[in-house]
Write a structure and sequence with these properties.
The complex is a heterodimer of chains A (about 425) and B (about 500). Chain A is α/β, with parallel strands linked by helices and about 425 residues long. Helices cover about 40% and strands about 15% of the residues of chain A. In chain A, helix 2 crosses helix 10, helix 2 packs across helix 11 and helix 3 runs parallel beside helix 4. Chain B is about 60% helix and about 15% strand. The chains are: A alpha/beta (about 425), B alpha+beta (about 500). The interface between A and B is medium-sized, with 28 and 20 residues.
């Protein structure tokens, strides 16, 4: 291809030129010269829009609180956000634009594995500008391992940890025939790999696997996938996907009489998933929420004893933040509280701490050193956050929740699924 | 528009030629595209596989499979690549692009050191070319790229469809051209044929149609063979017309001349009959009026003879005697002339007449002459015909009388016969008399024409003229055939009605 022989500069100019074509993608508010601008590319439209919007709202709730209190060292924190529709190519374009044109201080709040995985090489490309990617809403491996881990900081546990923990719990209750339903891309593959590796430790294998294509809708049929898994007579299914497809799969599995426990990972957006299943259940007169497990990387926002939860709930209700209207499609109903927005909230909390530590004259070059110096930071979730030169992931905890009475509640006892 | 009869044959040839061409080109195109594209797709698949394989080494060794997945997802956007999957060193599929499942057909593939191109049929997906490429000589794993054969088939079909569309278009144009050309040839030929038929049939009477040659003018203007034919035809048509015109003119002239002659003839005829009537009138009147003074002369001469017998000398007696003879001859002459005139003037209407009776009556009137000559008059059975009986008696009396009069030295024999023919009866009066030369056959029927002197045979020379008149009055003809010294036969005809 021709572009291969073009110098990097030419590519950058090309992408920048493309970026100009999207004047409607407005950043929130009007940034002042001394504001700290954070760049965000996420899904604000399409089937996965709930993730981008809720993550934004969670972060913005905390930033709003800080900004109203005078900001960090007198500087306000602003999020410059673009929609990528959970698609890799727009994510790349948005990132180039954020770095080159918007000259953001750092990248924060990206959503999705296929998008983030493709954006990673840009971080190397803009190494001289110290473009760091913070707290992406994905548990994928690429940004946690060389060569890109040095440009990335994660707060949440990885999919490997999530799925690994899930497998462990299923094995503990005697469910050894694990089947998988996953999105056929880097995200699904990451989760699949976690399951596979954990099973491998116990000399087990995935008994059956079915895939779906990214962007599939809830309205589509997942009967083929259900059929493939059902034939292997599994004890449990681990899903690694987006909420529309996973909800569709759960619906068709239950309709086909497959009543075994089905577990989803944090990325699914458990509230959105549950909402779809509850609505369908109401119209069909059937309970689709039974035996539904969701692994989480942040504690449940229902645990009011946690200081962070109390803060989160307070600021969310108080500020009710929303992304700029022209960034979204019409008709989105925000979820009051969710694991996604809680994660966004915690991300923001860590970021503010980092910005504080950077001092009144924050320099991008110092970001890495400052972050790596954070040790046992208390966020108010009982578990401390620590970073280090060889540790670019702040938390390792995986929390489990189960659907009960139309919402996910912390799951403490797996014995109900003993076999 | 007339449908050229040559068209179906031309059409058949066209269809055959185009059909064969289409089939041949389609087949050759299909084969060529299949071979070329298969090679191309194989090469492309190999390039993709090798490129993934070389990039996968580090990823598989140092990083995770989701990076591999992200990479193969990207390669899948290359056209022709329908699936990609990566197998690790243990033979386990660690990344693939299938939904909803990884096909069993591919799970059965066993990778080896060489990487052949496999043709694999996957249920519900189609036929694929599976191209494998080893990662680090197969120690780390293998990359498989599937190129769907459907793309090749689609290309083949679309190429064939395009080709057929072009050929079809050319075919239609050829068809149209063939039709037009055929019409340009056949139409003038049809026109020529039509004209030829017109000339051959109805147009001989000279219809008021426009000159057919005129309609051929545009065709004759052509410089090709058809044009030459039309020109020749034009010349022929003109020539025929000219001849016809001449013929008609000659015919008209002839007609005119005939008419003129007929008129002339009628005029002459009229004048002739007028003068004839005058002449007849004169002859009748003269004969009639001459009788009176003649009777006076005759009476006085006889008186002179009787009362002065012996008183006159011998010489005077001879003179008187000669005068009496002359008067007698004059009588006969006048009577004959009167009789000749009366044939038409005093004729009786025609009634059925028995010719046997007629002959008997004539024979009775000639009784003395017959006996004197010792002649035999034989007669066949004769028919009954419509005629003037008196004139018929006169006719036969004159003919039999002549036969006796011009008898030879041998005993005189007269035979009367009749023979029926179409619409008339031909009578023959045959004798064995002196006969006559053929040169006199016409003359004998002319009045006052005699072949002999009065001294040889007495007579006025009117008898046969009267006969002729009688026969002609009855609408018949009279003629004679004769051999000198052997006898004569007089023929006449009488109509049956």
């Amino acid at each position: 291809m021709k572009t291969r022989v073009l110098p990097n500069r030419a590519i950058r100019t090309l992408f920048a030129a493309c970026g100009i074509v999207y004047p409607s993608l407005m950043a929130i508010g009007s940034a002042q010269a001394d504001d700290i601008v954070l760049g965000m590319s996420a899904a604000f439209k399409g089937p996965s829009r709930g993730l981008g919007i809720e993550l934004y709202r969670g972060s913005m709730a905390y930033f709003e609180h800080i900004n109203r209190a005078g900001g960090v060292h007198g500087r306000k924190i602003v999020i410059k956000a673009y929609d990528d529709g959970y698609q890799p190519v727009p994510a790349i374009r948005n990132t180039i634009r954020l770095i080159e044109k918007d000259n953001v201080f750092l990248l924060h709040g990206y959503v999705g594995t296929p998008t983030v995985t493709r954006v990673l090489p840009l971080l190397k490309l803009y190494e001289d500008r110290s473009a760091y990617l913070f707290f992406s809403f994905t548990g994928a491996q690429p940004q946690r391992i060389p060569p890109y881990e040095e440009f990335c900081f994660n707060l949440r546990a990885s999919y490997h940890q999530e799925t690994g923990e899930t497998v462990k719990n299923f094995l503990n209750v005697g469910r050894t025939r694990i089947a998988m339903f996953y999105q056929i891309d880097a995200f699904g593959r990451g989760g699949w790999d976690g399951v596979r590796k954990e099973l491998d430790r116990h000399k087990l294998k995935i008994v059956a696997e079915a895939t779906y294509k990214r962007g599939s809708k809830f309205s589509q049929s997942f009967k083929d996938q259900v059929e493939i898994l059902k034939n292997a007579e599994p004890d449990a299914v681990i899903c690694v996907g987006a909420y529309e497809a996973c909800a569709g799969f759960v619906r068709d599995a239950r309709d086909a009489g497959l009543d075994i426990p089905i577990s989803n990972v944090s990325f699914v957006g458990s509230e959105s998933l549950l909402q779809l299943l509850v609505e369908t259940g109401k119209s069909k007169g059937k309970d689709y929420t039974r035996n539904l497990i969701n692994s989480q990387v942040v504690p449940s926002y229902s645990l009011q004893e946690l200081a962070a939860v109390r803060e989160y709930r307070e600021y969310m209700e108080k500020y009710r933040p929303m992304p700029p209207a022209d960034l979204m499609e019409k008709g989105y109903e925000p979820v009051s509280f969710s694991y996604v927005s809680f994660e966004g909230f915690l991300n923001a909390k860590v970021l503010v701490e980092i910005l504080k530590r950077l001092g009144p004259d924050p320099k991008k070059k110092r970001i890495k050193t400052v972050v790596e110096s954070i040790d046992k930071l208390d966020l108010g979730i009982e578990v401390p956050v620590s970073f280090g030169p060889r540790r670019h992931q702040g938390l390792d905890s995986v929390y489990f929740t189960a659907a009960e009475n139309g919402q996910f509640v912390p799951l403490k006892d797996w014995t109900r699924w003993s076999k | 528009m007339k449908y050229p009869r040559l068209l179906p044959r031309t059409l058949l040839v066209l269809v055959l030629v185009f059909g064969v061409t289409m089939a041949a080109t389609s087949l050759s195109t299909a084969l060529r595209i299949d071979v070329t594209l298969t090679e191309q797709y194989e090469a492309r698949g190999q390039a993709i596989a090798e490129s993934i394989a070389s990039a996968s080494v580090e990823i598989l060794l140092f990083r995770d499979v989701s990076t591999i997945q992200a990479m193969i997802d990207r390669y899948l956007e290359i056209r022709g690549a329908s699936y990609i999957f990566v197998v690790d060193a243990r033979g386990e599929v660690v990344a693939h692009t299938f939904s909803p499942r990884f096909p069993e057909e591919l799970a059965r593939i066993e990778d080896g050191p060489e990487s052949p191109v496999r043709r694999i049929y996957i249920e519900n997906e189609g036929e694929f070319m599976d191209i494998a490429s080893p990662i680090l000589a197969g120690r780390v794993g293998y990359v498989h790229v599937g190129m769907e054969r459907r793309f090749i088939r689609e290309k083949i079909w679309s190429a064939i469809a395009g080709q057929l569309a072009i050929l079809g278009g050319v075919f239609l144009v050829c068809l149209l051209l063939a039709f037009v050309l055929m019409r340009r040839i056949v139409q003038p030929l049809d026109l020529l044929t039509e004209h030829a038929q017109n000339i051959a049939s109805a147009d001989t009477q000279g219809s008021d149609r426009t000159d057919p040659a005129l309609e051929l003018v545009p065709i004759a203007a052509r410089t090709d063979e058809v044009g030459h034919l039309a020109q020749a035809f034009q010349r022929m048509t003109k020539e025929v017309a000219k001849r016809e015109q001449q013929l008609r003119q000659a015919h008209a002239e002839l007609e005119l001349r005939v008419q003129e002659r007929t008129q002339e003839l009628a005029r002459t005829n009229k004048a002739l009959s007028a003068s004839n009537a005058d002449l007849e009138q004169f002859a009748f009147a003269a004969s009639h009026d001459l009788q009176e003074p003649l009777r006076a002369i005759s009476g006085y001469c006889q008186l002179l003879q009787r009362q002065y017998a012996g008183k006159l000398d011998g010489k005077a007696g001879d003179y008187v005697k000669n005068a009496v003879d002359g008067v007698e001859r004059m009588y006969t002459l006048i009577n004959d002339l009167l009789e000749f005139a009366r044939v038409t003037r005093r004729g009786e209407p025609f009634q059925p007449t028995d010719f046997n009776g007629v002959v008997s009556e004539a024979r009775a009137r000639l009784k003395v002459a017959i006996e004197e000559a010792g002649a035999t008059v034989a007669c066949d059975d004769l028919p009954t015909l419509p005629a003037d009986r008196g004139q018929m008696i006169r006719l036969l009396q004159n003919l039999i009388g002549n036969a006796i009069k011009y008898r030879a030295e041998r005993p005189c024999q007269v035979n009367i016969s009749a023979e029926e023919s179409r619409g008339e009866v031909q009578f023959a009066v045959r004798d064995n008399g002196i006969g006559m030369e053929a040169e006199y056959f016409e003359r004998v029927f002319v009045i006052f024409q005699r072949l002999h002197t009065r001294q040889e045979y007495p007579g006025t020379g009117i008898g046969l003229a009267i006969c002729k008149r009688i026969v002609e009055r009855h609408g018949g003809r009279i003629w004679v055939a004769s051999d000198v010294g052997k006898g004569s036969t007089f023929f006449f005809t009488i109509r049956k009605t």
